[in-house]
Design a protein that fits this description.
It is built from seven helices and nine strands, in the order H-H-H-H-H-H-E-E-E-E-E-E-E-E-E-H. By secondary structure, the protein is of the alpha+beta class. It folds into two domains: 129 residues, no CATH class; 106 residues, no CATH class. A six-stranded mixed β-sheet has the order 4-8-9-7-6-5, sandwiched between helices. Strands 1-2-3 form a three-stranded antiparallel β-sheet, with no helix packed on it. A hairpin with a 6-residue loop joins strand 2 and strand 3. The longest helix is centred in the first third of the chain and has 30 residues.
């Protein structure tokens, strides 16, 4: 996460110094699509310093605030900040930058602004839905994990269930949701195996469900201790699938 924060901060700073009057015709979005008459109406001499100040401010504040949140608050806070802050900043940028554009261009910029507002709303929905807990429900010889990437697992499909202190080393996300400590979906490990995670990495230990067919599932929740859930699995399913706690993977 620190690498992402620094890299994006440097990118924003770099953008501020990349644009100048000579290359604006080729690099400045919107301006490069204008007719010659429209370009002459744009106050480029005032817009370029505005563009530079904005990106220097964005890059600096992004790095400082992002690192503070990550190192001294929480990974979740820094992840939300990384997603929300640039979107919000560029909304302000578009709104204030309209005064430098010709009237014929402002309609397109308003549409872009509305698009950013829509993206911000979508991100908010993803945060709310993705961050919700995945409850575990027991049926007749079944264990159902509800919510995003949940599924029903039959007791006959379970080879073993165990507590583990840490997850396998992950290489990348193949299909899923990852925001700070919350990880849901399919992830590829460095050993080449694809596993399913429905975990909050701040809530340990994790329950590992080893299946006879299909991907292994790792589960944890802040609202329900893994030790308690393991005992419930013991009661509702069968003791034959319960193995002793494991300290390593």
């Amino acid at each position: 996460m620190i690498v992402v924060i620094v890299a994006l901060g440097v990118l924003f700073l770099g953008l501020g110094f990349l644009l100048n009057k000579k290359n604006a015709r080729y690099l400045l979005s919107g301006y490069n699509m204008m007719s010659r008459a429209e370009r002459e109406k744009m106050d480029l001499d005032a817009y370029i310093p505005f563009f530079r100040r904005f990106h220097v401010f964005l890059g600096t504040t992004f790095m400082v605030a992002g690192l503070v949140l990550h190192l001294w608050v929480s990974q979740s806070a820094s992840a939300v900040f990384i997603a929300v802050y640039p979107l919000t900043a560029y909304m302000v940028f578009l709104w204030k930058g309209m005064r430098y554009s010709p009237e014929s261009q402002r309609r397109k910029e308003r549409l872009a602004l509305y698009g950013l507002i829509g993206c911000l709303m979508l991100v908010g929905v993803l945060f709310v839905v993705g961050g919700r807990d995945n409850p575990v429900i027991f049926g007749q010889n079944t264990m159902t994990i509800r919510g995003w990437y949940g599924e029903e697992v039959a007791s006959s499909d379970i080879d073993s269930v165990q507590l583990v202190d840490r997850l396998p080393s992950l290489k990348w996300k193949t299909n899923g949701y990852a925001l700070g400590p919350v990880k849901k979906g399919y992830f590829k490990t460095r050993s080449g195996e694809v596993i399913k995670l429905i975990v909050d990495t701040d809530a340990r230990p994790f329950i590992r469900i080893v299946r006879k067919k299909g991907r292994d599932i790792y589960y944890s929740s802040k609202s329900r201790s893994s030790e308690t859930l393991l005992e419930e699995i013991r009661v509702h399913l069968t003791q034959s699938v319960i193995s002793k706690p494991s300290k390593t993977q």
